TrEMBL record:
Regions annotated as coiled coil: none
CDD domains listed in its UniProt record: SDR_c
SUPFAM superfamilies, A to Z: NAD(P)-binding Rossmann-fold domains
Pfam families tied to this protein: adh_short
InterPro entries recorded: NAD(P)-bd_dom_sf, Sc_DH/Rdtase_CS, SDR_fam
Gene Ontology MF annotations: oxidoreductase activity, acting on the CH-OH group of donors, NAD or NADP as acceptor
Presence of the UniProt keyword Oxidoreductase in the record: yes
Protein name: Short-chain dehydrogenase/reductase SDR
Keyword Oxidoreductase set for record: yes
Record organism: Rubrobacter xylanophilus (strain DSM 9941 / JCM 11954 / NBRC 16129 / PRD-1)
The family this protein is said to belong to: Belongs to the short-chain dehydrogenases/reductases (SDR) family.
UniProt entry keywords in alphabetical sequence: Oxidoreductase
Amino acid sequence: MLEGKVALVTGASQGLGRALALAYAQAGARLAINARREESIRPVAEEIARAGAQVLAVAADVSRSEDVGRFVGEAVERFGRIDILVNNAGLLGPRVPIVEYPEEEWRRVIDVNLTGAFLVSKAAIPHMPPGSSIINVVSGVSVEGRPRWGAYSVSKFGLEGLTQILAAELKDRGIRVNAVDPGGMRTKMRAAAYPEEDPMSRIPPEENVGVFLHLSSEESREVTGQRFKAQEFGR
């Protein structure tokens, strides 16, 4: 499905990012993946390599422009281009009311979730040929503000806007940009957000990759500026 394509996935050490990296590898893509720490991303790179795919793993903080430049630069040097970009890296932040929200945590969440997507997109786009795809991972709280979701919700609202702006700006270049709300999954972030919830009541991220593969393939070549709910895709 994605034979020979180059996919760059941020925040790929666990959860949805890891599941996507492995799914892309199984679909024939070459991978550039990152996490903030080398010891976190190395095991995923080893899994991908065992699956027979080419992989570049880089320890990089997407909120730091110098790290992003190094990550994207190494990916382009290794693979020559970027066909698929998934802005997945994200932090939950504290679940407290706005009046109690620590300023330092607010900035950290916004920097990773929103500024990170901006920095990675800005660095990657010059290396993306016509037919490429950018997918931004959004959330159910990026279309409806809810109590105690703070900077996470605000950052995802911003990412919805960034998706629409990039889709309009890049349409004439043949680069499509879409947003995906993955819904609740059996991940560490979900468990932190809903500690009272039975994690087994949610699907594992490995079962939630279909819409991402679709949006990365030629099947969606004309689709841009849209928002998808992953768990409703194909129903």
